[in-house]
Amino acid sequence: MDLNSELTNAKIDSLRLELLHNKFKEFKNTHDDELIQSIPAVTQNTLIQALKTKYVDAEREYFLKSQRYGVKHPEMIQLSVELNTTKDNILKEAGQISDSIATEYEIAKSREATLLTAVEQQKGEIFVLGDKAIYYAVLKREVDTNRQMYETLLTRMKETNLTEELKSSDIRVLDYAEVPISPIKPNKRMNILLGIIVGLGCGVGIAFLMEYMDNTIKTQEDIEKYMGTPLLGIVGHIPSEKKESLLPLLITHTFPKHAISEAVKGIRTSIMFSHPDNPKKILLVTSALPSEGKTTFASNLAVTMAQTGNKVLIIDADLRKPTLHKLFQIDKSTGLSNILVKSCDLRTASRTTQVPNVFAIACGPLPPNPSELLSSPAMVECLHAAKEVYDWIIIDSPPLLTVTDARILARVVDGIVFVLKSNTTTRDAARKAEGYLSEIRDKILGAVINDVDFSRNKYYYQYYYQYYYGERESEETPS
Predict the structure, then answer these.
(1) pLDDT in tens for each of the 479 residues of the chain?
(2) What helix, strand, coil percent values describe the chain, rounded to 5?
(3) Contact at 8 Å (CB) between 443 and 437?
(4) CB 3: neighbour CB atoms within 10 A?
(5) DSSP characters for 128-162?
(6) Ranges of each domain in the chain
(7) Which end of the chain is more exposed for a tag (fewer CB within 10 A), N or C?
């Protein structure tokens, strides 16, 4: 059984290596370096990842310096040589991986053949042992029968001897047992008291333990302690009864006097007055992890800014999983990706929405290389052109910790707003995301704690909403 299991694993390993080996041979025949580099064994190689990172950094530096120097400038020549050298090293390492896989494939085939020979040899030995096992079973059954007969006879002999040695007993009753009036054990009162004490102690201990183990962001103190950025505001959870309205997630447009709308307006005021001498007109809304509500917050922030009479443009820069077009109910066939490849201009891609003074640019067709598009000069040109037309520009980006798109966009915007989901985003994730932007820390305007359930966190957040919004929310709830 062990040899069969090893043989099966060897066949699986051999097939896997054969597939990789054939793919390498097929891609080598096509002379397409991109296909070779797309094989998982190549893409997961640590050295190739490091070389690709070095190549991207050198390419970015080449692009930046190409705007200042000519092609024959010594620094441009040096960067060109570095790019070619890095690319050659990547191809060389991919070739070494191909040779290594070929060697592993040969070893796997040899191991499979050896195991197959050993299995066939063991099969012959098993047939011989089968005949011996039959004879052994006959002998064992005879031994068991004889042992059982011997034990039966021995038991009967001991019983006979014991009966012969028994004599009449001299035992007599001195006192009869009496039924007690009350039980000695258990002591119910003591047990109940101990149960109450132990239960309270365990409950308090578990509560403190859960609080100690909870490392998520919940309060303003967590933001200031673990991220070192100011808190712009706290946004509550959208109630389930409001989700039946026409635009459930654009609550600042549907219910402009709702508590959540007032909270977003407070954040809008904080952003506008954070730098009164040098207003931050181009804002990037990002988060540490997916599903933290940054798209919903960015859309509602755009609505509140438009309510002051400003022309606001919101751009869906999430070229991987876009959702902005669903909130504003616009066509996503033409959008940011078309602008970046220069198949249309800003005026053609921008769409009017059902919210006055709010214009939106969808993601457009999903490109195969989002990071490269966002780091192109076309993105900078697009923002400069938009700045001439609109008062505020809000960019909805992917999360910081999953892809590099947000870090690329952070370098071309005026201000950055972090969105952190209450009781979900961990402190380590928030700290790591903020660390990615350490070089441009002065652009960080602050953080927003999103999706706060005030019914569960009333001890932390009750003073934000209790006195001012309680009556207004009840008045504005639609009948």
Answers:
(1) 777 777 787 777 777 766 666 666 665 555 555 555 656 656 666 776 777 777 777 777 777 777 777 777 777 777 777 777 877 677 677 666 666 777 777 787 777 778 778 777 878 778 888 888 888 999 999 999 999 999 999 998 988 888 777 655 667 788 888 887 877 788 888 889 999 999 999 988 888 887 777 777 777 777 877 787 888 888 887 754 444 443 467 888 888 888 888 889 999 988 888 777 777 789 999 988 888 888 999 999 999 999 999 999 999 998 888 988 888 888 888 899 998 888 888 888 999 999 999 999 999 899 888 889 888 899 999 999 999 999 999 999 999 888 888 889 988 998 999 898 888 888 888 888 888 888 888 888 888 988 887 766 554 444 444 434 443 443 343 32
(2) 60, 10, 30
(3) yes
(4) 15
(5) HHHHHHHHHHHHHHHHHHHHHHHHHHHHHHHHHHH
(6) 2-136, 220-476
(7) C
Supply angle C-alpha 349, 402, 314, rounded to 5: 25
**Residues with Cβ < 8 Å from 357, sequence gap 6 or more?**
306, 307, 309, 310, 311, 312
In CATH terms, the fold of domain 220-476 is: Rossmann fold (3.40.50)
Q: How far is CA 400 from CA 103, 194, 237, 289, 441, in A?
A: 40, 52, 23, 7, 14
Write the burial class of residue 295 (CB in 10 Å: 0-12 exposed, 13-18 middle, 19+ buried).
buried
For residues 238 and 260, is the Cβ–Cβ distance under 8 A? yes
293: left (phi over 0), alpha (psi -120 to 50) or beta: left
